[in-house]
Amino acid sequence: MFKGSFTALITPFKGGQVDDKAFERLVEWQIEEGTHGLVPVGTTGECPTLSHEEHKHVVELCVKVARKRVPVIAGAGSNSTAEAIDFSRHAKKAGADAVLHVTGYYNKPTQEGLYQHFKAISDAVDLPIFLYNVPVRTIVDISVATMARCAKLENVVGVKDATANVARVTLQRLACGNDFIQLSGEDSTVLGFMAHGGMGCISVTSNVAPRLCADFQNACLKGDWKKARELQDRLMPLHENLFCESNPSPVKYAASRLGLCSAELRLPLVPISEDSKRKVDAALKEVGLASLAKAAE
């Protein structure tokens, strides 16, 4: 179930509120374009600025629109273990297929603290759990040894690895076993990640290029590395320029250019600069999405 191209969904806003209709259209389009799975209310979904009610609403909306056609991994992470458990229980009740849990950002827990955090969630909720290792944002890195401990927990099934260190895939596979599902959280290095034994990617780029990202993952999973490399080369301008400023500001601008939703964000995130807009526009053109952008104007 958990392999291929998973989209780290943006959360569209309109007039300061969650734009339900735009979100529903986005989910439907993703599935039509071949996306293998959906991840609402993660980093790209601006979860830090969503209220608890909004967070839960977006999960419910995603599950409702997906209608079990593709799996939904609901963002449920928090630096409060009690809050993470509450989000997880809600995700299970809403019908999500799994949950995604980040490390204790700002708290800076020890490796033992990380293990106890994930153990408490696993003990409390009977739902597949993906750990989310993104030290560039959280400062805290889940060590390979801690990952191996967590892999033995009843409900922990895999990791979203955003370390951009492809060697970690092999190290974690050897430590956690071949059944431990490793999904990349970093678009630019995903080709190497897959070659090391990854099973997919939770992608930012697939918000605007779902078909190409799904085709790339299909090629990797089939072992067609020539096609995979060609698709990665084609997608690289987007992989790079969608991070020219803090995510998800650039990808929201790109989505607005494709007519998917507005580019609206919530503070402290702000719209990208004119120079960054030019970079994103050029990337859309280079990848072959300029015609969609023109049609949306």
The secondary-structure class comes to alpha/beta
Would you count the extended β strands for me?
Answer: 10
Sheet with the most strands?
Answer: 8 strands, parallel
* Overall shape: globular
Helix count, DSSP H or I runs of 4 or more residues: 13
Description:
With 297 residues, this protein is of the alpha/beta class. The protein is built from 13 helices and ten strands. It has an eight-stranded parallel β-sheet with strand order 4-1-10-9-8-7-6-5. Strands 2-3 form a two-stranded antiparallel sheet. The longest helix is centred in the C-terminal third of the chain and has 17 residues, at 225-241. The model has no long low-confidence stretch (mean pLDDT 97).
Task: Give me some keywords for this one.
8-stranded parallel sheet, two-stranded antiparallel ribbon, alpha/beta, 13% strand, 297 residues
